[in-house]
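User: Hello, can you help with two protein structures?

Assistant: Certainly.
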Amino acid sequence: MKKTTSEIIQNLRKEGYSNIFVWKDSKGTYYNWHKHPYDEIRVMLKGEMIIKTPTNEYHLRKGDVLNVPAGEIHEAYVLEDCEYVCGSKI
């Protein structure tokens, strides 16, 4: 069963995530190598992007979920206009 954005956000709160928001990126957006002091989760609602770490490459599409652990360096390329739910956990 497909979850609504509200249900996704509710589930993330139950899992201990905070600072939860919906974000949109346009095709061609690039986020250079960076890291966060907290775990970051991304739940794709639509679109397509690639997130790279030094050891892996993740091709994310609608319905995909990716957790980037605190301190892990990563970069992102937006291949198609996208929208996703983002949250952080300390």
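That covers the first. Now for the second protein you mentioned:
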Amino acid sequence: MSGTKSVKVKPNSPKTRIVSETDSELVVEVAAPAENNKANIELIKFLSKKFGKNVRIIRGLTSKKKLISLE
């Protein structure tokens, strides 16, 4: 997987995991809270490790719906 992908984030979940994946969107539960950028940092670390690529949030830093770049 490379390019861009839409991600729906659910913060304050029991653990960080991918709940569902389609061609158009990933749904990811994140254990970190949605405050002080903690959920974004957890999301980037998790997806980088999962896909073995650099992950960057292109759009949606303060939204539950994000657009990420996988390089």
